[in-house]
Amino acid sequence: MSVPKSPAAPPRTTPRPAGPEGAELALEGALLGHPGGAAPVGPLDLRVAAGEVLAVVGPSGCGKTTLLRTLAGLLPPLSGRVLRDGVPVRGPGADRALVFQHDALLPWRSVRANVELPLAIRGVDRAGRRRAAEEWLDRVGLAGHAAAWPHRLSGGQRQRVQLARALAGRPRAVLMDEPFGALDAHTRTGMQDLLTGILRGSGATVVFVTHDVDEAVHLGDRIALLPSGRVLDVPRPRDRAAHGAPETRALRRLVLDSL
Amino acid sequence: MSAGTSLGRRLVRAGSLAAALGAWQLLTAYDVELWLRFAQFPTVGEVASALADRVGTAAYWQDLGHSLRRIVTGFLLAAVLGVAAGTAIARSRWAADLLGPLVEVVRPVPAIALVPVAILLLPTNEQGIVFITCAAAFFPVLVSTRHAVRALSPVWEEAVLTMGGGRVRVLWSVVLPGALPGVFGGLSVGVGVAWICVISAEMISGEYGVGYRTWQDYTVVDYPGVFVGMATIGALGLLTSTAVEAAGRRVTSWLPHATAGAPVPDAAPPGAPAPRPVPVPEAKAAPDVGTASEAKAAPDAKAVPGEEPAPAAGGHPAAEKESVA
């Protein structure tokens, strides 16, 4: 995989527009789950500050995906409230982009047309969305694949397209469901670096589900543990060099013990 | 796939057709009577010369034009109505409750049995034939559309919803394009059934048209003429089903095909380390691969009007189920 080490490195002809301000997301006594489904999660109280990167960690089946779907508005809470900037969430919206765990690219749209979709929904004209889509594809290192059908790409490439599609809509929050779960370790590292580069500049709030504690420590400002709902702070700085640092090791041990 | 057909396979195909014609010519030329009686049967030569005579007349082309106009009108109406009704039934509980039982009651009635209904309802014979053709093609299109829409992975719809899309956007950007492979399965079956019904309706109540002419030839004991009619019907059927197939392939070119091969190599920037290839999960990325080939076989299958086609729309990745964790 050719994930660029730093997406901001190549010189750009167009300066990156200032990102939208991040949204503040909150759960208040929210019980998460499907009506009549398996054991619900919670009630949870959780506050994600504007622009924060929150990693959500927990064992399989603990409700990580349910939490994301609830924040996205695809699944109403069984009880309690879901708030965006203090206003109850009534349904899905363009302000909260969801990056799915499994490939959710529309297979009948080219890679470029997939990335253009959120812009088309927002009513951006043809030339404008094409320009934006190509810029985002360039940023995730897939400028050469704009015209390809999604099935022609590898799994890692498709996840990068999904990321570009989510961010092209300039959401105020990005909800990511183990976006790198299916990728091999090498690709995964590249994707993490790419993500760090893009997200730090975007200003968007990020909620990031993972089952990988190292990934959570590396990417998150804070780490939320499910199903308990406990939240841990991550010491800064968190570059790769800090991985061996005693504080990081202690945090990792703490996360593992808490699970 | 015919683009890549080798010369050898072409020869086999042509040879198969030639052998059948040769057997026909031999059996009829020698008036063979082996339980099956070929004495009255016209020879290939007689049919060919009758065809050559007919092709020179304006009446032949007039009949052909009549039949084509009827089938095109009826089939297009059926396509639009069938896709609309199938989508509505699959997407809306109201539509399913209102239309579902009605459809299931009317569907088993062979379209050709609707001749009395057509005569009673519609002012002209011409409209009656179009009505029957439309009724014949409507049900296969409806049923396969319904299946295709229901088989769509919910993750696509959710993706569009989280981009701020509404119901209309989901319909145009997800439901209709995603259902197309299944819809074209139904259209292929539908166009075959439509031919059966347009010809039958012309035989019963037509003025002009290939079916009418063929029946006329039969009543005046012009057997070579009957065979000219049959050959004409076959050729027209081939033409229309090829057109539907070609249109289907064109609009579903995004489907992964077996011949599509490996994923395109990553455009590695110069100096980047050799990427580790990540294989495409073929099974997951292959919804509806079988549709085209199934659909191709379907019109020849003399499907009963309204018969449910093979679940062509199946096989969508069901892997999204676990997303509720």
UniProtKB/TrEMBL annotation, chain A:
Residues 7-18 have a biased composition (Pro residues). PROSITE patterns: ABC_TRANSPORTER_1, ABC_TRANSPORTER_2. One of its GO terms (molecular function) is ATP binding. The keyword Translocase applies. The keyword Translocase applies. InterPro entries: AAA+_ATPase (IPR003593), ABC_transporter-like_ATP-bd (IPR003439), ABC_transporter-like_CS (IPR017871), ABC_transporter_ATP-bind (IPR050166), P-loop_NTPase (IPR027417). Keywords: ATP-binding, Cell membrane, Membrane, Nucleotide-binding, Translocase, Transport. Residues 25-253 form the ABC transporter domain. Residues 1-22 are annotated as: Disordered. Signal peptide: none annotated. This is Nitrate ABC transporter, ATP-binding protein. It comes from Streptomyces filamentosus.
UniProtKB/TrEMBL annotation, chain B:
It comes from the Bacteria. It is found in: Cell membrane. Residues 266-280 have a biased composition (Pro residues). InterPro entries: MetI-like, MetI-like_sf. GO terms for cellular component: plasma membrane. It is a multi-pass membrane protein. Keywords: Cell membrane, Membrane, Transmembrane, Transmembrane helix, Transport. It holds the Pfam family BPD_transp_1. The chain crosses the membrane at residues 71-90, 128-149, 170-201, 221-240. Gene3D superfamilies: MetI-like (1.10.3720.10). Residues 261-325 are annotated as: Disordered. GO terms for biological process: transmembrane transport. Coiled coil: none annotated. Residues 281-317 have a biased composition (Low complexity). Residues 64-245 form the ABC transmembrane type-1 domain. Belongs to the binding-protein-dependent transport system permease family. PANTHER family: ABC TRANSPORTER PERMEASE PROTEIN MJ0413-RELATED, ALKANE SULFONATE ABC TRANSPORTER-RELATED, MEMBRANE SUBUNIT. This is Nitrate ABC transporter, permease protein. The lineage of its organism: Bacteria, Bacillati, Actinomycetota, Actinomycetes, Kitasatosporales.
